[in-house]
Amino acid sequence: MNIRFLIFSLLIYCNIYSQNLENENPISVMLMNCYERSGMDETKIDFSDYFAVYEKEKYNLTNFNIKKYNSDSSIQPKFIIKGLNSIKDSTIGRWINRKMYPGETIMFSVPNSENEEKSRGYSIYTKGKLIETKNNEFPYFKKIENYELRVACGKTNKSIVKMDIPSFSSGGFEGGIYLYWIGDLNGDNRLDMLVGTSTHLAGIGLSLFLSDKSDNQLFIENKVGSCSSC
Q: Which residues of the chain have pLDDT under 50?
């Protein structure tokens, strides 16, 4: 057998095996308000590996509890998640749950209880150019151009999502950038974000931006699901 062919075949096999290991337990997120409206048959969904993220009514330091999801519980979580290797039983966060428009800014701090000097402050903001219609005709704007979600922390300023979205003839915009939850989900004292993006009304793609522990970049994006009725 040709030795070059053997080595080439072995490399392909190792690459496929490595990819299968990486995709064996992908991260998945379900927004509860989206799930309830979807009409999915709960009996056909395996919730055994899901953790639920609950917002506390009263709290001192951490304002979200994270525990195994119980579909029979009367208390509704904000969202449920599976496949995340590192997860705490409580954390600090903020439930945003809305579309972000150009010019909006949200400030958020992730404290480090072990070393206050390593606490991090973040500026989460959207920008974009509103393109007006000719002669100021209704719906007044044709689209949002260079519509972008960015995050700044210290000397780092990173673009998270960038797109153009058109407007409806009846007013409003078709799609957008949605910020659902921000906080420290994986327990490394850095910001994580649950973000939705859409360029049409058919659905919203969900991405979980987890902090990069190597500090080479702010986030690593994980495609975690979609929502067709949020």
A: 1-23, 229
